[in-house]
Design goal:
This protein is α/β, with parallel strands linked by helices and 227 residues long. The chain has two domains: 4-119, Response regulator (Rossmann fold); 128-223, Arc Repressor Mutant, subunit A (Orthogonal Bundle), CATH 1.10.10.10. It contains eight helices and twelve strands. The protein has helices at residues 12-24, 35-44, 61-69, 85-94, 106-119, 154-165, 173-180, 189-203, and strands at 4-8, 28-32, 49-52, 76-80, 98-101, 128-131, 134-137, 142-145, 148-149, 171-172, 213-216, 220-223. The strands form three sheets. Strands 2-1-3-4-5 form a five-stranded parallel sheet, sandwiched between helices.
Length: 227
């Protein structure tokens, strides 16, 4: 069955463009033009992915992210004219999977849709994540690069495991610090830079030009699985 994408956007021309583009790529498409209708649709017929505009007429899209997260783990891609770093961080902290700024390229958006759907693996899937030459076995706590086992410290493993459980998803600095170091360290970004650099030294072919642990400036990091 085709993956079902719910588009929540108040602009008819954007909805039409997304409907045509998503349908051409094999997705079934549902639409809503308000926050209330979008949340109701997500409850009534749970989609596989949500594409959400923040500028809705009845409620801010940031609140919609939080409301959907209250009952669903469905991937949410924000599609918004708001390019401010604060809006991006808030959306990701509330639970958005990705953030795309309008105007956007349809090829890029489709790639992000595929990545979000790919990352939503079944619960019984093997906990092995492959990114380039690196393989992370989450169940056995084993990391290999080019087939050779890589030794990681406890914190390095916790950090890499967090990335591996959220592949191709941008995790904010605050999210990462809270998960790995605890709520008391959410502003200690120096910890994060040091450990990310340590992981890059051990995993990247060229640590000075990282291709796996990539930075989204001012927002956070993600583990990139492919091109």
């Amino acid at each position: 069955m085709s993956a079902r994408v719910l588009v929540i956007d108040d602009e008819p021309q954007i909805r039409r463009f997304l409907r045509i583009s998503l349908s051409a790529n094999g997705y079934a498409v549902g639409e809503a033009e308000t926050a209330a209708a979008g949340v109701a649709a997500a409850r009534a017929e749970p989609p596989d992915l949500v594409v959400l505009d923040l500028g809705l007429p009845d409620r801010d899209g940031q609140e919609v992210i939080s409301e959907i997260r209250g009952f669903s783990a469905v991937p949410i891609i924000v599609l918004s004219v708001r390019a401010d770093e604060f809006d991006k961080v808030e959306a990701l902290d509330r639970g958005a999977t990705d953030y795309v700024v309008k105007p956007f390229g349809i090829a890029e958006l489709m790639a992000r849709v595929r990545a979000a759907l790919r990352a939503r693996a079944p619960a019984d899937a093997p906990e092995v994540v492959t990114a380039g030459a690196v393989t992370v076995d989450l169940s056995r706590r084993v990391v290999r690069r080019d087939g050779e086992e890589v030794h990681l410290s406890k914190k390095e493993w916790e950090l890499l495991a967090l990335f591996a459980r959220n592949p191709d998803h941008v995790l904010t600095h605050r999210q990462i610090l809270k998960e790995v170091w605890g709520p008391a360290h959410v502003t200690d970004t120096a910890y994060l830079r040091v450990y990310v650099n340590q992981l890059r030294q051990k995993l990247e072919a060229d640590p000075s030009a990282p291709m796996l642990l990539v930075n989204d400036p001012g927002v956070g990091y993600r583990l990139r699985l492919g091109d």
